[in-house]
Write a structure and sequence with these properties.
There is one protein chain. The protein is an alpha+beta fold. Helices cover 32% and strands 11% of the residues. A hairpin with a 3-residue loop joins strand 2 and strand 3. Helix 1 packs antiparallel against helix 2.
Length: 247
């Protein structure tokens, strides 16, 4: 059964898009840049605000704010379809490049993939309602630390394809991010860069069933980022907890 989405205006959602069967969707810098260009264009078209993002080779995370009930679905539909056309055109003569580490040469039996045609994305993107400031903070930290956990870099701001560098600098030169909700997370906008840098490296506390939960509007528990559980709010940096969010 295909559960309907339930997006509501003014709410924040953590969106995860994955390559089909773990295939790469971002191979080189040109791919990453084009994905960001499309997100900027589509977000402006549907008046969706982007509060955080992180792209890896075979998946991507976005924190977006809905402008109406259909805005996020329309945004992801347009962005993924346009990016797929770009990807299939670019790699049509060497589609095995999208197999990641196995893609340095054409693998045996790859004609079956060519015969069925490329399917770049899993059937549905995943979406989590980020209920409050704790939800935003925990999801944002999870995605900005993704490259560090994957051993692609030692510090989150060293990965060029995430919002970590912009948050740790306190400004976004590319103009993609809305920083308003992030600045209010700890109730002290003037200290946000310092508080956020400490929060990124603070020990994480995993939630149990009775702790803070984030609702999954797709109706499927597994539609959450792998290995991520919404944590109960704890601060070991001396800053106050995240401020409540409207919506």
């Amino acid at each position: 059964m295909r559960w309907p989405r339930d997006f509501r205006r003014g709410r924040l959602y953590g969106v995860t898009q994955c390559g089909n069967n773990g295939r790469w969707v971002y191979v080189d810098q040109e791919d990453f840049r084009w994905a960001l260009t499309l997100m900027r264009k589509c977000a402006a078209r549907y008046a969706v605000l982007v509060h955080g993002w992180s792209l890896m080779q075979n998946h991507g995370h976005w924190i977006v704010e809905a402008s109406d009930d259909e805005s996020i679905s329309n945004l992801m539909r347009d962005m993924q379809s346009q990016y797929s056309r770009y990807l299939n055109q670019k790699y049509k003569h060497r589609p095995w490049m999208l197999l990641g580490k196995l893609g340095s040469k054409k693998p045996r039996g790859f004609t079956r993939y060519l015969r069925s045609g490329p399917v770049n994305w899993i059937p549905r993107f995943h979406a989590e309602w980020l209920v409050d400031g704790a939800g935003l903070a925990s999801f944002l930290r999870h995605i900005e630390l993704n490259p560090v956990r994957a051993k692609l870099c030692k510090r989150p701001e060293r990965w060029p394809w995430s919002s970590a560098a912009a948050h740790l600098a306190g400004s976004d030169e590319d103009g993609l991010l809305c920083l308003d909700r992030w600045r209010e997370l700890f109730g002290a906008p003037a200290r946000i860069v310092e508080d956020w840098s400490q929060f990124l490296v603070a020990p994480r506390v995993e939630a149990k069933a009775q702790a803070l939960r984030i609702r999954t509007w797709t109706g499927c528990v597994h539609n959450r980022p792998r290995n991520w559980v919404a944590p109960a709010w704890t601060m070991t940096t001396g800053a106050t907890g995240p401020a409540p969010m409207s919506g």
